[in-house]
Amino acid sequence: MRVTSADVARESGVSRTTVSYVLNAKPGVVITEATRRRVLEAASRLGYTPSAAARALRSGRSDLVLCVLPDWTVGPVLDTLIDHVTTSLAEHGLSVLVHISRGSRPLAELWRAVTPCAVLGLVPFAAADARAMTRSGIVVVGSALDEDPHPETFVVPQTSIGRLQVEHLVARGHRALAYAAPADDRLVAFADRRLAGVRAECARLGLPEPRVTTVDLTVESAAAAVRGWRDDAVPVTAVAAYNDEVALAVLAGATAAGLVVPDDLAVIGVDDIPVARLASPPLTTVWQAIDAQAEYLAASVLAALDPSLEPPVRPDDVFHVLERAST
Q: What is the pTM of this model?
């Protein structure tokens, strides 16, 4: 557990204000030598180190971390990621402001207005933006959806998700596959990469090109997609869906088309949202280690603010399949 200034105050028998004055060497405040020594000795005994937020405040910056999101839909996975990052940073005295990039307002206007101590991006920043923030003394931490040339960037390999879906379906004897793509254009950055993984794994295994169909989150759209897949010259027997929501639509569409899942059509989603296990049949899905990803991002921010901290180790178990009855 992290040692705080309150712990130092209790150990030394003085107020937290006095501890703050001593540890921050606040000018213009008279502290007796005996008290100063008692506080420093208590801090040393307890292994106290100032928080990243305290250092940010002393440098003239706020304790605010600006988290910049592209124009994505905000669903259960992103909600969970932001919640974990916010909680982790709050334990170190840092607050998180989430900004979704919509419209044409330049990013520079935002960070100059709120003067954050760090900016966290869930996709890489434009080079000019990153340089401007760094020159202003703002710590910049980024992540990427797939391979990125910058070693400090956290990569979330979306193509691996598509490969895992195909690997799971093929292991169950399926060779004619379809991909259920989302209808929301804001998800194209994820969907294109996951589909690329599906295509690459099908090609590697010598399977036909997957049949790609956009599926709205309606029974009518999903049923039409299912009928199209089944009426093909080589009927589709398994579907890799963009995410669990699209997969749940496919399950409903299969039922409307008179098919039995998984006997006639197997379905696998992505994300393991809570309703996935309540579906009929329960949905097989690719689980993402959102908590580990969030901890890595939060620790990256803290390490960037405090050079004495070790950079975090990237989590290696980022994805795996949770098999349920739909496959």
A: 0.75
